[in-house]
Amino acid sequence: MPSRPTSSSPTSSHVTPSRPASAGTGGGSAAPGAEVPEEAVTPLVRGLAVLRRLTEADGAASLSGLERATGLARSTVDRITATLARMGYVRLDGRDAVLAPRLMELGNAYLAALRLPRLLDPHADALADALDESVSIAVCDRDGIRFVHQATRRRAMSLHFRIGDLLPAERTAPGPLFASEWNEEEWRRWRERRAADPEDRGFPAVPARSRPYEGGPDPAALPPSQRPTVGDDFEQRAAEAGRAGWALDDQLIEPGLVAVSMPVREAGRIACVVNVVSHTSRHSAAGLRDTLLPRLRAAVAEMERALDREPVPDLEEPAPERKAEPAPGGTRAGTGSARAGTGGVEGTEGAGDAETAGKAAAPSGLADWTGASEQELGRDFVESLARGLTVITAFGEGRAELTLTAVARATGLTRATARRALITLEHLGYVTTHDRVFRLTPRVLGLGFPPLSRISLPEIAAPHMTGLSQRLRDSVSLAVLTGTEIQYTGRVSTRSIMSVDVAVGTRLPAYATSLGRVILADLPEDRATELVAGSAPGDVPRRPAPDPERFRAELERVRKDGYALVEGELEQGLRSIAVPVRDRAGRTVAAVNVAMHSSRRTTEACVGDVLPELRATAAGIEADLHVAGRFRRVRTS
Known about the structure:
The protein is of the alpha+beta class. 38% of the residues lie in helices and 17% in strands.
């Protein structure tokens, strides 16, 4: 079995000619001064630079802003963003580019290949519930750390780091534990980074490092270059953490934030670190250690047993190619994306895993999708960028380590094309290689995952609903069930003399609305009947409470047909039609509807014309929801 390095520092198994890095390539993710391999794919380097800049800008930036931030020509930025939009990774909103949920499939590929979230997240969630404190799981990324899971507590003062955020190792509790295993080369790289970036400006997720330590000589009396700063004792802390088996963060990131960490080991090496975070209003650093360390130690032991029960699988070749299936919703799911093939190798993870719009968008579909993209976008489509990003999605659960042949087979690319993409990704730190085997690094999470990891269902649905409203010229709403009522969580209204006027946050009896009936129909019959019976009399003016038997028959029809059509229940002349929005497990978590005055369309027109468009929109929302919700809970409101 090949060795499995825990660090994301590239190893050099490729001997290729190199050229100096230039601003024109936009390769800001490579090590300072690193030379760009001659075989690197320049459009891929530039496309990744654009995605990083969008991530640093919290998910949205103007095209002119991207031009300035990357140093690329405006025409290049336009072509790159057009290609990313075609892939469904960004949404073009006027002169702005906005990261789209489907971009998370790149980070999902890393998290699936890592396998730690699947095995350890439930343990972290249980620990957070038991301690009533925020719990995180962190992995090492060169001389920093990234969180791969967060179980946060809802408080006025709570943890606000996001999955994928990069933090300097010396300013965290997990950092010293990872550093206890560093070799001299890794320590040298850390020292060079500290010298080149004395205020941690390269870590936008944390405040600048400028607070001196308490005690010792007056910092103001020392020359600026000799003033102590947070992290100066990191090597000592790493040595102590290695001996003790745990580490503390006593307000190293910002005042008030304290944390205690312990490593989770696999095969004798640190696989990840579990981090419990609190505030000084609840615990001092020493109090956090004394109070929580025994329970943290017990949870870590459970996690290590979970890893032992499911060892890392041996290297395997991916399954043979399968024919691609069309994406639900066709080419207009509301995001401007027409992608049904790229990233499609996610579909090889297993039947029923709808990671992208196409459930099993396979390598054979990539060539067709590429051809269609070139025909639609012409010169604005950058094929080498799309191919390079597809290589990332070749990895996943059961495919943590792949040979070049396996990557080429999984993506449908030639070996030469896959090799150049892997060389580029390795140069930029997104891939490591050892003994001719490639694996993703945590740096992949830096491609959009932090801002997108906080996205909610209404935010996911908004562009899809806007597209539907513009096509139909009718109001579109999203709602969730709250007790016996529905609550509107998303809304796109039309501008007309007569339109449906309902504000976000409005609550209405579930039984009287198309949105509510669709959600009720997914519940067990007894539960749905109980909720309807619990509705207060007179909830709907001038309408009696529904007859239980007739309402059960109505819900059965909704289950069978997959939609609900309601006319005149809330107000005379108001007609609406709704369909469910389902999560990855197939549960109805919300509903989306189109509402109009009955004079606009007949009932037959609603079913024949509106329903197909509504179902396509729901499919687009679900596709994005399934990607966003694979390794995190998506808020429904």
